[in-house]
Specification:
The complex is a heterodimer of chains A (275) and B (498). With 275 residues, chain A is mainly α. Chain A is built from 16 helices and no strands. Chain B is elongated, with a radius of gyration of 31 Å. The termini of chain B are far apart. The chains are: A mainly alpha (275), B alpha/beta (498).
């Protein structure tokens, strides 16, 4: 085998076989995804899509979904960057336990998150918060429900990102006179920008697909707490499969649009460097 | 240059912009309506008709209705934790019963009925005509979960009774969480047939209902319940009445394929008439006032001797309900009322001067020569008629009537005349003696005929039959029961309402 590999011709063939088999395996998944979308498209018609977009309820749900997901993604980054950094850099007792705790929203069925939030806001401290910001069955509750799940994914991603960035650069910056904060903002964060971007988009996408906790904690009140995933549920529940599919396709279009936009523009200007 | 302020400031600004956009609602100015909104938990399968009725209600009253959708069971667990909201609309009354036993639901108003049918693709390609046809080998069935859905549970129990379940069970390919999931599966062709509600299929023109005779007993009742923790029960009840009104909400349900109940007539503030025997007044008056306040209705009470009341009914008066002094006064007008419910009973007693100076022990003692007796008028009052019936049954009528010095239309007058000292004894209800037990001597009468039972019945022609049924439930409540007992009645009704 070693002998075969040394020959450039056979090496080329071998490379081709290798890449082709990988492309085949990966392509199967992609094909399945496309086939699903094609089936969805076949099940609906431009008429259904148009009617869906005409409905003020669905337009409201689109707007609420896009705004709440963006807010959730930003808030998740605000929390996930410090957690990810601390977990990657800071040794402290009970770190393993904290690490496990951070995974709870990933492990728990999303419905349970909603139920737990509902219970939390019926306790005296919860009620005190409600008096200032209405949460249960209100729009802030939608964002909180999305945030509780989406943030866990952002934390996971950023933890891995900071883990992979060597502490050396940071230490060098500090020996050159940077404070830890300066080293973080000028060296670590620019290095982590791809991870931050991934964490943000992941949180955004999770929030868009979030359904169970919103249904339980925020309800499915039309023109109030209805997001696109609830619309799909509501339309399904009355047998309106065509509208459910139309709304799902709207979600796909919105998701692809936003993800492409973020990936092309990125957070580059904010981080002060081109990607 | 430190990029920190730029990044922090930029993202804070983005958050502020998003929060601003979220709190700015372009429709808010346009549809601002007065009044506090009603929060209604609504089974998702009822969304179509309920949303329309809610819109109609908002237009008519200006009170916004917020509908919260979900599966009946999910909503029940939700409201149990959240303990807020005003109404709960469930696809089957069993969920409301569960809510009632958990103390979450107060009044329940029935809306419609649904029947289990077999859903098949239009044209019925498998030629399924009955539940027995579901046993055929290549058939694949979808079924709604037998634990968490009403249609699954009811159809299973009916088929078990019919001895068909064992044979059908192997044909079931999948159990689904809701009835619509089953219909969706049939529509998509994932299964050949499934059992759903007849009302479900109105939304599915591609499907056809097979009304299998074996499934006929599997029926569910759509109903709406007022939540015990509602802070505006009167508003909640008003919308519930609107939903269940035959000229408001029910036609919408009917168009959506539901078999609706015979509902009440819609009125923002219904006015109803209750005929009641005078003896019952003390026991029910306070409860009636509470009922009026809670329901937002006015109850016109007509208290009188039952002889007079039944005469009025026979001459064409139609009260919405009648609470008689005794069952004998219900039978004469039974044709105009639904079957009555006995609420309370009271015995007739002898009331005599303190210390019983004339030594009266039994009914026959009233025939003793030289006594001055008072009785109620036989024609004018139930008490009088019952007294005469009792005396005749004991063969004492003529002898006692010889001693009668006074006949009055009501028992109160008899008690007062006895206290004034003009009489030796009077025949009244135990319920009349409550105030004077310490001042006069009461002698119990053990005879069967000395018992008066008070039945309540709803008028057959009433435009507010459901409302009057709720009044009955109200009168059956624990608080009302205590009022009856404090007024000298004994409790007879079974099934105390919460």
């Amino acid at each position: 085998m070693n002998g075969d590999l040394s020959k450039p011709g056979s090496q080329q063939t071998s490379d081709r076989v290798f890449l082709a088999s990988f492309a085949l395996l990966g392509g199967t998944y992609l094909l399945l995804l496309l086939a699903m979308l094609a089936a969805d498209l076949a099940y609906t018609s431009p008429g259904h899509l148009w009617r869906a977009l005409q409905s003020p309820e669905i337009r409201y749900a689109v707007r609420l979904s896009l705004l709440s997901c963006s807010l959730t993604a930003l808030l998740s980054l605000w929390v996930a960057v410090p957690i990810g950094y601390l977990m990657a850099r800071w040794p402290f007792p009970g770190k393993g336990l904290v690490d496990a705790l951070l995974d709870i929203p990933i492990v728990l069925p999303p419905l349970v998150i909603g139920l737990s939030l509902l219970i939390l806001f019926q306790t005296p401290p919860g009620r005190a918060v409600e008096r200032v910001i209405p949460m249960t069955y209100a729009v802030p509750g939608v964002i909180l429900a999305q945030f509780m799940v989406a943030c866990a994914f952002a934390v996971r991603t950023l933890r891995a990102t900071f883990d992979q960035i060597s502490p050396r650069h940071e230490q060098v910056a500090m020996t050159l006179g940077c404070t830890r904060s300066q080293a973080f903002w000028r060296v670590v964060l620019p290095e982590a920008r791809r991870g931050v971007l991934t964490a943000g988009t992941l949180a955004w996408a999770r929030a868009l697909g979030e359904f169970g906790p919103i249904l339980v904690f925020s309800g499915a009140t039309r023109m109030k707490t209805e997001v696109l995933s609830t619309t799909v549920f509501l339309e399904l529940s009355v047998g309106n499969l065509e509208a459910a599919v139309a709304v799902s396709l709207l979600m796909v279009a919105a998701a692809i649009g936003v993800l492409l936009l973020i990936r092309s523009q990125g957070l580059a200007p904010m981080l002060g460097r081109p990607l | 240059m430190n990029p920190a302020p730029k990044i922090i400031g930029g993202s804070l600004l983005a958050i502020l912009v998003l929060v601003g956009l979220l709190s700015w609602n372009p429709r808010r100015g346009a549809d601002r309506t007065p009044g506090r909104p009603l929060l209604v938990y609504c089974a998702a399968g009822l969304k179509g008709p309920v949303a329309q009725v809610a819109r109609d209600y908002e237009r008519r009253t200006g009170i916004p209705v917020q509908l919260q959708y979900g599966g009946s069971g999910l909503l029940l667990s939700n409201l149990r934790v959240a303990r807020r909201g005003d109404l709960y609309l469930a696809a089957d009354h069993t969920y409301l019963d569960a809510g009632r036993s958990n103390g979450l639901v107060a009044e329940v108003l029935p809306l419609a009925r649904m029947r289990a049918v077999i859903a098949v693709p239009a044209g019925n390609p498998r030629r399924i005509q009955s539940a027995a046809d579901l046993e055929a080998a290549p058939l694949q069935l979808g079924w709604a979960n037998v634990e968490s859905t009403a249609v699954g549970r009811l159809s299973q129990s009916v088929l078990k009774t019919a001895g068909l379940w064992e044979a059908i069970f192997p044909r079931i390919k999948v159990f689904k969480p809701t009835v619509n999931d089953v219909a969706n599966d049939v529509k998509l062709g994932a299964v050949d047939a499934g059992v759903v509600w007849d009302a479900t299929l109105v939304d599915y023109p591609e499907l056809e209902a097979v009304a299998a005779p074996e499934l006929e007993p599997a029926e569910a009742g759509v109903a709406v319940g007022v939540l015990t923790f509602s802070e505006q029960p009167t508003e909640a009840l008003r919308f519930a009445r609107f939903l269940g009104a035959r000229d408001a909400g029910l036609p919408v349900f009917s168009r959506a394929g539901f078999r609706v109940v015979a509902g009440d007539q819609w009125s923002e503030r219904p006015e109803v008439v209750l005929y009641s025997g005078g003896v019952n007044r003390i026991a029910i008056e306070e409860s009636l006032r509470e009922f009026e306040a809670r329901e937002g209705v006015s109850v016109t009470r007509v208290y009188n001797g039952c002889g007079i009341l039944t005469a009025q009914i026979r001459s064409g008066q139609r009260p919405d309900a009648y609470f008689a002094c005794d069952v004998s006064f219900m039978t004469t007008v039974a044709a105009h009322f639904e079957p009555p419910t006995d609420l309370s009973e009271t015995r007739m007693v002898l009331l005599t001067q303190p210390g019983n100076p004339r030594d009266l022990r039994i009914l026959a003692d009233l025939a003793k020569p030289g006594l001055a007796i008072g009785v109620a008028n036989e024609q004018q009052s139930a008490l009088g008629a019952l007294t005469a019936r009792l005396l005749r049954a004991e063969g004492l009528f003529d002898a006692v009537m010889a001693n009668v010095r006074v006949q009055t239309p009501t028992a109160d007058l008899l008690v007062n005349q006895l206290r004034a000292g003009g009489l030796d004894a009077v025949v009244v209800y135990a319920a009349n003696t409550r105030q004077v037990r310490d001042l006069l001597t009461v002698i119990e009468l053990p005879q069967e005929a000395a018992l008066a039972i008070q039945p309540y019945a709803v008028g057959r022609d009433s435009n507010n039959a459901h409302l009057m049924e709720r009044l009955l439930e109200w009168l059956k409540s624990g608080t009302s029961r205590r009022r009856f007992e404090d007024s000298g009645f004994r409790w007879r009704a079974v099934g105390e309402a919460p």
